Amino acid sequence: MARVVVDVMPKQAILDPQGRAVAGALERLGFGGIADVRQGKRFELEVDGELTEERLAELRRAAETLLANTVIEDFTVRVEHVTTQA
Amino acid sequence: MARVVVDVMPKQAILDPQGRAVAGALERLGFGGIADVRQGKRFELEVDGELTEERLAELRRAAETLLANTVIEDFTVRVEHVTTQA
């Protein structure tokens, strides 16, 4: 059992209206000094069994296929923790 | 200048319909062995100036006020990297 985290963020070259809205709201609420905000998605996948290299490659394909729109988004896949069984 | 990342995830006790939908879609696409998926948000804040303890506490308040709905979501605030100026 392992937890794999997939972070999906809008590409730097892409306008991020959600992030802009958050930055504006922070400013209006009195939280100044924040130059930029970008908003993306975080997926936590609980993966059964052993996390082999092949398994991780498959999860990367899954992220590319379903979780990120790679035309406008970048994604990273990382292992957060592995639970070993006794 | 520093990048601060705020991760916002649905609380464990809360049903996460987006995550369920993703888990179902992964299964249908042939990506098996994924026991659970939870979907949340990731915010990247580019913060001006020096990142003092007070500044970080202020950003935590900002996350609590604007970025997370603490009734149904948990959040974490962490510093991803700091750019020091020459």
TrEMBL record, chains A, B:
Assembly description: Part of the FGAM synthase complex composed of 1 PurL, 1 PurQ and 2 PurS subunits.
- GO cellular component term of the entry, any: cytoplasm
Membrane-traversing stretches: none
Biological function? Part of the phosphoribosylformylglycinamidine synthase complex involved in the purines biosynthetic pathway. Catalyzes the ATP-dependent conversion of formylglycinamide ribonucleotide (FGAR) and glutamine to yield formylglycinamidine ribonucleotide (FGAM) and glutamate. The FGAM synthase complex is composed of three subunits. PurQ produces an ammonia molecule by converting glutamine to glutamate. PurL transfers the ammonia molecule to FGAR to form FGAM in an ATP-dependent manner.
What this protein catalyses is: N(2)-formyl-N(1)-(5-phospho-beta-D-ribosyl)glycinamide + L-glutamine + ATP + H2O = 2-formamido-N(1)-(5-O-phospho-beta-D-ribosyl)acetamidine + L-glutamate + ADP + phosphate + H(+)
The species is Actinopolymorpha rutila
Instruction: Give the protein name, as stated in the record.
Output: Phosphoribosylformylglycinamidine synthase subunit PurS
Gene Ontology molecular function: any one = ATP binding
> Main site of residence?
cytoplasm
Tell me which Gene3D superfamilies the record gives.
Answer: Phosphoribosylformylglycinamidine synthase subunit PurS
